[in-house]
Amino acid sequence: QVQLVESGGGSVQAGGSLRLSCAASRYTYCMGWFRQAPGKEREGVTRILTGSGSTAYADSVKGRFTISQDNAKKTVYLQMNSLKPEDTAMYYCWAGRYCGIAPDERNSWGQGTQVTVSS
């Protein structure tokens, strides 16, 4: 298991930006983010392969969100720009070796950080 500590959530108006951070207790093959809004299913957002830096995004966030990493700190970041009310959700960091965008319970998950976007 990997311990994950997330930070950076908050409230912002539509069109604004937020940056989430996720620090892992050890290196893993890939890391990413998924989200879950009240009453909705979990939705994969993005992932990064920590060795190559290769990234992938859900269509709903492509062009607005960027995942990056600081390997020395075992930390990934999610820069979220042009936020929309429909981005409102609890955002969860994950880490492991199952590297699809969709949430995978075989990976380790963080506790989540709330992002609220008002119109």
Task: Tell me what you see in this structure.
The protein is mainly β and 119 residues long. The chain has no helices and 11 strands. The strands form 2 sheets. Strands 2, 4, 5, 6, 9, 10 and 11 form a 7-stranded mixed beta sheet that branches. The model has no long low-confidence stretch (mean pLDDT 97).
Please summarize the sheet with the most strands: 7 strands, mixed
Structural class: mainly beta
Kindly state the mean pLDDT as a whole number?
97
Shape: globular
Helix content: under 10%
What is the count of DSSP helices, taking H or I runs of 4+ residues?
A: 0
Radius of gyration: 13 Å
- Weakly predicted, low-confidence segments: none
The ordered H/E elements are EEEEEEEEEEE
The strand count comes to 11
Strand content: over 45%
N-to-C span: 38 Å
